[in-house]
Specification:
Layout (H helix, E strand, L loop, with lengths): L3 E4 L5 H12 L3 E6 L6 H6 L4 E5 L5 H15 L4 E4 L5 E2 L7 H29 L2 E6 L12 H21 L4 E8 L11 E2 L10 H10 L9 H12 L7 E4 L1 H20 L1 H6 L6
Helix pairs in contact: 1-7, 3-4, 4-5
């Protein structure tokens, strides 16, 4: 059976590939982008099944209007994919207040509001699935990405909580966690103005590697979306899905290290309890 999707951030990258794959297999897609002209070619190919909506993730009222419009036109939407976002690179001290506010407003608050706007509709129709495109950066951290990680770790905590709140309504979630993938993500990165004191530090080294295309990128975007769609079609998918060997290896290493430290300090943890009476 064909499905109906609502996907944000479809002008390029993973969101565009996902929309194209859904349309190619006969599904209906409500696709959002900041500039709708980026979807003209796709709209020409699928005039009946592609519906485009302008959306700026920092506009909460606009988010609600776009989601309400899509559900009203579709009648039922099976899959809501919160994909739009961008990267911010720079040591925490180097970032401007405006850069910090925009990063969190887009990646974290925008994603939260997409989900909040969709929940009443999904609850009313008796269920549905929300796919939040996160990143391996929702469970691991690179120097120079502090605010990006704050947004991804934040949305993962939000989703894990909401998934428990709405499971009884037939609504479930997937947190997609790609590793570095060969998309246009790098071209949309916002860079902080570097401070001379940070020259040669880990944060500066990461920034230099990204700008010079020396940062290791293993992920293939088409294969990433092929895997994601296969998991999306499963009746009982996992809450978290690592995508790419780098994502798997990095997340596995980070979780193993955290678990080891947790076990090493088990005695101290238990000593914080109230004394037995």
């Amino acid at each position: 059976m064909s499905k109906t999707w609502f996907i944000t951030g479809t002008s390029s990258g993973l969101g565009r590939i996902l929309a194209e794959r859904a349309l190619a297999r006969g599904d209906q897609v409500f696709a959002t982008a900041r500039k709708l002209a980026a979807l003209d070619e796709l709209k020409a190919r699928y005039p009946e099944r592609l519906h485009t909506l302008a959306l700026e993730l920092t506009d909460t009222a606009g988010i609600r209007q776009a989601v309400d419009t899509a559900f009203a036109q579709a009648g039922r939407i099976d899959l809501v994919v919160s994909n739009a976002g961008y990267g911010l690179v720079g040591a925490a001290e180097e970032l401007s207040d405006a850069q910090i506010e925009r990063q969190l407003a887009t990646n974290l608050l925008g994603s939260i509001q997409i989900i909040r706007a969709a929940l009443p509709h999904l609850r009313h129709q008796g269920g549905g699935r929300i796919v939040q495109v996160s990143s391996e950066g929702g469970q691991v951290a690179y120097p120079g990405f502090s605010l990006y990680h704050a947004s991804k770790w934040g949305i993962e905590g939000f989703v894990e909580t909401v998934a428990q709140e709405v499971a009884g309504f037939g609504i479930d979630f997937i947190l997609a966690e790609p590793g570095p993938t060969d998309t246009r993500f790098g071209s949309g990165i916002d860079y902080a103005q570097g401070l001379p004191e940070y020259a040669g530090t880990p944060a500066d080294n990461v920034r230099t590697a990204i700008r010079s295309d020396a940062f290791p990128v293993k992920g293939d975007p088409e294969r990433t979306m092929e895997v994601l769609m296969r998991v999306i079609d499963q009746p009982n998918p996992p809450l978290r899905l690592a995508l790419g060997s780098a994502a798997y290896d990095n997340i596995h290493a980070a979780l193993t290290k955290r678990l080891q430290v947790l076990d090493d300090y088990k005695r101290e943890a238990f000593l914080a309890d109230k004394a037995a009476e």
